[in-house]
Amino acid sequence: MLRKVVLGLSGFVAMFALSTTSLLATEYAHEFSDKKMSLAWSVNGDTLAVKVSAPTEGWVGVGFNPTDKMKDANFILGYVKKGKAKIIDEFGTDKTKHSSDKKLGGTVDAVLVSGVEEGGVTTIEFTMPLNSSDKNDTKIDVNGDTIVLLAYGAGRDSFKSKHKYRATFKVNLSTGTAEKAK
Ligand code: HEM
User: Fold this and answer.
1) Under 8 Å CB-to-CB from 96, ≥6 apart: which residues?
2) Helix H or strand E segment including 79
3) What value does the mean pLDDT take over residues 106-135?
4) Helix, strand, or coil (residue 134)
């Protein structure tokens, strides 16, 4: 009888620990990394949940589906300044330029989930619709190839500073296969 109660109690404790952990940290279905920068994501219905991390105290960024270098990409950039995270939604206006999606007549579609800067590493989590109503953003087809740009800036909390690292990947968001495209 006592054994049953102990077993029952330990099961309850384990369940409680599991549910607390899942409340505290989002688990992602897929992840890859390159030169210490990593991208993790899950496809949740018509929403993409993203975690991007890089060895910087400046900005970290992800871009989706450019037509040429940075042009026409849907960018989300974020940084953590004095413990407070900020993200911006940008659009690639040129091969080497981007500008505020909202200023270009689009909408801000990314939603900040969390941002942490710890030990020189910045991690930003956000969600975004796969098919936003934004006239600038293109629909993301999770079953096809998605071109994903990753970049991070140097240690300054400014979205204006250029990247210290940037790379282009071809990713299948539903299976998780990712290969470096450049
Ligand atoms: C913050 C302001 C940014 C500036 C001023 C900037 C500027 C530039 C410039 C001048 C180039 C061409 C020269 C080079 O290759 O270094 C370039 C290329 C590139 N940028 Fe940016 N960039 C910015 C943000 C971003 C962001 C947020 C991403 C991705 C998340 C990104 C991804 C890339 C990639 C992947 C390339 C290489 C493209 C290719 O050669 O195919 N950039 N950028």
Assistant:
1) 69, 70
2) strand 74-81
3) 94
4) coil
For the Cβ of 92 lying below 6 angstroms from any atom of ligand 1, the answer is no
Query: If you take atom 40 of ligand 1, which residue's CA is the nearest one?
Result: 69
* CB of residue 173 inside a 6 A radius of ligand 1: no
Residue 11 has pLDDT above 80, yes or no: no
Q: How far is the CA of 108 from the centre of ligand 1 (A)?
A: 21
Indicate the SS3 state at residue 107: coil
The contacts of residue 174 (CB under 8 Å, 6+ apart) are 43, 142, 143
Ligand 1 pocket residue status of 159, Cβ below 6 Å: yes
Domains of the chain: 28-180 (2.60.40.1210)
* The model's pTM: 0.87
| Residues 13-32: tens digit of each pLDDT | 444 444 444 445 679 999 99
**DSSP letter assigned to residue 71:** B
Name residue, tokens 């500073």: 161
Nearest alpha carbon, ligand 1 atom 31: 151
Nearest to 128 by CA among 100, 84, 99, 89: 89
Residue 168 Cβ < 6 Å to ligand 1 = yes
